[in-house]
Amino acid sequence: MTRQLYELVGADPEIRFSPYSWRARMALLHKGIDAESRPWRFIEKEALAFSGQDKVPVLVDGDAVVSDSWEIARYLERTYPQAPSLFGGPQGEAMARFISHWCDGVMLPGMITLLVHDIWRCLDPASQGYFRESREKRFGRPLEEIAAGREERVDGFRKALRPMRMVLNDYQYLAGASPAYADYAAFGGFMWARSISHFELLEPDDPIHGWRERMLDLYGGYARNSMRVAA
Ligand SMILES: N[C@@H](CCC(=O)N[C@@H](CS)C(=O)NCC(=O)O)C(=O)O
Predict the structure, then answer these.
(1) Which residues line ligand 1 at a C-beta cut-off of 6 Å?
(2) pTM above the 0.90 mark?
C-alpha cells in the first residue's frame, strides 16, 4: 500500500499551505520516507472520517492512520528508528515539543492576523465560504478588518520571534548544527505564509531570514520548489 499524507490545498491543488502538514512533510523528508500527497480542502470533512477526526495532516502508512503533526513525528521516530533521528533522543524530543508549542502559541497566532485575507484569496469558492464564516466567528470581525494595518503590525510580529532569533545568532539551526524536528515545527509556519502570500514577514538581515533560506534549500530544494500563489 502506498504511504499517503493528507495535506491542505488551495483552489490550486498544488498549493499546499497547512503549517502542520508542512511539519509532517519535512519530517518525512528528514527520514527519507516517501509519501504520496493527498490534496484535501477545508470542506471535505467526510474524506477524513476514517481518521476519527477532521483536521490535516493525516498520515496513512500501511495499517497505521496517524493524525496531528506531533503524533506523526513521534510515530515516524518510533517506527523508523534506523532513519535519521527527528529529535536526537528523549531530551531533544521534549525541547522540540516546547518549540512546537511556542510556534502554536506565539508564531502562528501572530502570522494569522497578517495573512488571513491572503489565505481566503487562495481558496476554492466553497472553502472560502467555510473559512470566512469560521474565522470571522473566531476573531469576531471581518477578515478584511483582521488583516488591516499589517504593514504597521508586522514589526510586533518580528519582535515576538526574538527567542528564535537569539538561537539562530548562535547556531545554524534550532536543533544545532543540522536541522531536525524543532526546525520543521517552526518552518511549517513560514511555508504556510510563503505558499499563500508574498507579504514579507522578515527583514533581509534577520538571522531567521538566513535560516529560512537554508531550510528552503534542504532535500534538493523541496520547499523552495513547491508551488506558491502568483504574486
Ligand atoms: N494540532 C494539529 C492541528 C491541525 C490543524 O489545525 N490543521 C488545520 C489545517 S492548518 C485543519 O485541518 N483545519 C481544519 C479546519 O479548520 O476546519 C496538528 O498539529 O496537526
Answers:
(1) 8, 18-20, 42, 55-57, 68-70
(2) yes
Q: Would you tell me how many other CB atoms lie within 10 Å of the CB of residue 93?
A: 18
- For ligand 1, atom 10, the nearest C-alpha belongs to 18
User: For 126-182, how does the pLDDT look when each residue is reduced to its tens digit (9 = 90+)?
Assistant: 999 999 999 999 999 999 999 999 999 999 999 999 999 999 999 999 999 999 999
User: pLDDT digits over 118-139, tens only?
Assistant: 999 999 999 999 999 999 999 9
Set out the domains of the chain in order of their start, with CATH numbers: 4-79 (3.40.30.10), 90-221 (1.20.1050.10)
Scan for cell 470542506, then name that residue: 43
